[in-house]
Structures are given as structure tokens and as C-alpha cells.
Amino acid sequence: MEEENKEIVQENNGEVALENNTNIRIADDVIAVIAGVAVAEVQGVAEMSGGFAGGISEVLSGKKNLSKGIKVESGEKETKIDVNIIVEYGTRIPDVAFEIQNKVKVAVENMTGLKVVEVNVHVQGVSTQNMENNNNSNNN
Hints:
The protein has helices spanning 2-5, 28-40, 52-61, 93-112, 129-139, and strands at 9-12, 15-18, 45-48, 70-74, 78-88, 115-127. The chain starts with a helix and ends with a helix. The chain is built from five helices and six strands, in the order αββαβαββαβα. Mean pLDDT is 80; it is low at 1-14. It is of the alpha+beta class. The strands form two sheets. Strands 3, 4, 5 and 6 form a four-stranded mixed sheet that branches. Strands 1-2 form a two-stranded antiparallel sheet. Strand 4 (70-74) and strand 5 (78-88) form a beta hairpin.
């Protein structure tokens, strides 16, 4: 009788399925961190553009907030992601946005199994910090 209550696990080509229809829910914050790490790998992104709360939490905790500037809406099988960035001056914005969309989609789908239906990239500004550093070094 005890065996009827146990979960039965079957493995097919690396995929594990539970027979008692157990649902796994991945928190939006987890998806946001995965997306944030993927965005950080894209060249041309100066920083993430988060709200006031994101900046305050970074200052108070002393840790980098990997989900800063990312908004996630997820359902049971699919998710939508909005990314807010500031690009480096001199980079081609459509190329940066396209690379962000691809990297975020691949990372989230591979790690969570959710289907990413949208990755919206919102460019909030252009960082001229590199341009200012170049001008200062040329003046010396």
C-alpha cells in the first residue's frame, strides 16, 4: 500500500517526469536574475537602468543587484521579459538590443524550461563616460 503513495520517476533521454503531475513554479525574481546575468554578458551595455528602489537596495546591501532594470511576467509555461538598459556611446543600438534578446531568450529557456514569448529592450539612455575618459586622457 505504501508504494502507491510514492512518486514514480521516469527518465527518458535526460528528461525527468514525475507521474503525479507535480507543478514546479519558478519565481519571477529567479527569472530576472538569469536574464540579468545574460544581459551583463552583452558588449555595449553600460549599465542596467533600474528604478529608485533598485539603486537604494544596491547601496544598502553593497551587492550588485542582478535583476535591476528587469521586469518579468510569467505564467505556467511561458514568460515575458522587459529589459531596461543604458548603452555605451558609440555602440550600434539595434545590434546590442538584438544580442540581448537572443542571449536572454536562450538563457531563460535553457535554465527554466519556460518558453520566452517576448524580450522587450528599452534603451533608457546613452552613457558618455567612456567618451569623457578619452577626452581627459587626450588633454594630458
